[in-house]
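Appendix B. One record, verbatim.
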Amino acid sequence: MLERRSDLHGNPQAHVINTRTMEVFRTLGVDRAVLALSPPVSQMRFITWCETLAGREFGRLSLLGTDPGAAVARMSVSPTIFANVAQNRLEPILLDRCRGLGVDVRFEHEVLEVNTPGERVATAYVRSGTAVQKHQFDYVIACDGASSRTRQSLGIPMLGPETLQRFVTIYFEADLQRYLAHRPGPILWLAGPDVRGVIIGFDLRTTWALMCPFSEPNQYDDFTPARVEGLVRKAIGSDQAPFRIISTGHWNMSSQIAERYRQGAVFLAGDAAHRFPPTGGLGMNTGIQDAHNLAWKLAAVLGGDAHPDLLDTFETERRPIALTNAEHSLSNAYRMAEVGMVLGASTIDPVDPASGETAPGPGPDLGLEGDGEAARARRAEIDRVIEAQREHFDSIGLDLGFCYTAGAVLPEQGDPRQEVGAYLPSLKPGCRLPHVWLEVGGRRTSTLDIARPDRFTLLVGPAGALWVEASRTLDSDFPLRVVRVADDGDAIDRKGEWAALGPATGSAILVRPDGHIAWRAEAPATIGAAQAALSAALIAILSRPSSQAEMLKTGFSVQHRSAISSGR
């Protein structure tokens, strides 16, 4: 792993870790360490719209809703839960885990250029100190950010609007509990006369960021230290809360997707492949899930279990997800304008940096005060438009319900897409394996933990003996684990939650190493039929040749897998 910086990120940056990403972290064994740094759910309850922190509140959105039962159901769809952990606190956990797995992490190694003359050779020119060295790799994953030098050197264009808005970000430390105790939450939208934008809470105790939009003729350099300090003071709306500026930065909000995710032996992932507006918190999560999708495929190819064509499914599967997430993020950004239109005070209009040096201006009369009919109607309309923002902050359908309809899956007919704000568990190929609790070895175990990250898992029912027998004949050819869910099986469905999902007692469900369902089949008539069906499915999913003639033509041989991975 080559990193141009001398150390990890110092600023908080991204902070929303959605449930699916936490499931990936669970697979890596770091979920508990991440959750230990996250504020409890009770402190992430509200998204608030206000003039300033100490000033008028216009409304708030409860992320837990008004129905306690619905909140419990919302959190029962996974063995883990979303977290609010800033990137500068997350990265040390991931770095430590990488090193524990034997990854060679090299800081102060800047990749200047990558070229790829073949499908399995990439040449990288890397600068460390004053020396530039040439390295060759079987494959390269370029995660070098929104302005990816690798992507540019390969000539891969980005599609979509390059600039939607520019922002200055002011990181600061302060104790803001006096303003948040009655409305705890990580995000407060500001619609003040001088300061507009959003205050983001990272640890929800001391570390915050004020993000303000700006536009020409103003430039980032116009946000001088004195002006930045004044803007934070105005955003708080009181002199009673001391604060300390940590740093400032600026960034460009865009909505772009790389035209392609692969060129030869080079793959794009994360911000190098896609840029979203932050409205929805999907950028970092999509990037992590890109890597999760690609990792098992690279492992299968390098280990000789899959044909290199399997790697083409990375773009086939992940690029449509990025397009969907970009569309959702962009829609959220536009929908935010509705609040300002109804309120009569915007949270997204550009801020004049010079306002950080002027006296606070009086807030306009928005017609919200009093018990008159007009005021009550306006407050009700504001409540309505704020409630309409719910999918912006709670997109569980996108989070857990995204489904691969092509690629390393054998899809079925029917549209598996779900509503953004609701998740419906599904056993359709391409979908994430739903979470339910089973009993394994006397211990409560999630179905997600039963699926193994280093091999395929075949889940069969009580009448799945033929599948079990068939799998034994294929064990030497495919990395496969079989789990029989039955009262006398490997896993016991004590509460009937697995049965409630609808799998037939003789059916089989094939789960990929990344936890997505690759294929499912009804009960076979004979062991031979089960063996043929399972073998054909694995061959198709792994892009392996289906005949001896094709093996010879492609040079692929199951009996000589080690030859494929030689010289790694």
